[in-house]
Hints:
The chain contains 6 helices and 2 strands; from the N terminus they run ααβααααβ. By secondary structure, the protein is mainly alpha-helical. The protein has a two-stranded antiparallel sheet with strand order 1-2. The relative contact order is 0.17.
Amino acid sequence: MRAMTMALILSLTAGSVSAKPHLRDVPAIDGTILAVGIADEIRKNCPDISARLLRAYSVINGLKSTARDMGYSDEEIDAYRKSDTEKARLKAKRVAYLEDGGVNPNQPASYCTLGREEIEKGGQIGALLRMN
């Protein structure tokens, strides 16, 4: 009887412990990686805008630290970061964001327009960019 009681308690306890969400489901992580990717795409395609590289590196290093603080291992972080599936998913989101922002891949000026808007907004993307 004692063994059954202990087994029941352990199963109930285990059921109440929630697993960590996948890193793609953590907005502070996934959204920031998306913002860095969007900023990078803008600066690569607009000759009038460059990256704030030190800030970008700081943001990226901060993400790894944040993920560790949330209980993710280096292996989990690297698996997310290196995943071809995640890269493709983020690329699709990046392309959609750029299109929604009026970017035409054949018109570099459209990247510049969106980049200037992002800089003026002063949000996460704009903070990673600067006018040349």
